[in-house]
Amino acid sequence: MPTSLQDTTTLHNGVKMPWFGLGVFKVEEGESAVETVKTAIKNGYRSIDTAAIYGNEEGVGRGIRESGVPREELFVTSKVWNSDQGYENALKAFDTTMEKLGLEYLDLYLIHWPGKDKFKDTWKALEKLYKDGRVRAIGVSNFQVHHLQELMKDAEVKPMVNQVEYHPHLGQKELLSFCEKESIQLEAWSPLKQGQLVDEPTIKAIGEKYGKTPAQVILRWDLQNKVVTIPKSVKEHRMIENADIFDFELSAEDMQQLDALNKDERVGPDPDVFDYGF
Q: Structural domains in the chain?
């Protein structure tokens, strides 16, 4: 199990990815994005997750450059948006992302949503970027088991990561075990269900036992399920609190109680029907 904020999991191509990072969904472009990223890095975060659709890649890139931490010590993720899917479009979108970030290379590039019929062509573009050394790892986001199976039928490179909505109300057991079997690292977005889980009595009770907040309990549950997690926060005290999860371990019984909260309930869109922007 990871014992610090800098600890990494090794992706199936040998690249090391931090178990814990900062998501910047809804962080405003400009000074807010710059300061959020700098604050996180100052407090030990080494993984920053953005996306073209977040509209804050420029601020994120500036925050990275101004952080004072060498680029090679950081792990930066971005994602290709739905309207940029397809081979040529995805290659162009990547160039735009890199221009905005102002970086030489990306650590991880993801297809943001599967959609219906373009993700295989988009994947070919990601494979090219990977082979050309412009991205250290490639993956997908919001892919269900059947999407992954479909993609892997023709893929030359297997996805290294699948970033999905994941929290105790959406345990995704089948997807988690499929990804483990295929050596695809599962990563959680919205691990706290946009804050909706912090009042859950079971989670609060477990937290009290360890002197930890409900958020810390959930984030620890992620890690013990071998799921990379990227909670979002713009507040420094919250970033520090979120990362303070390496000094305790949930018992097998606690883990079962948290697993039992599953309702297959999403806070975000259902990947099987979400076609926004395509």
A: 8-195+225-233 (3.20.20.100)
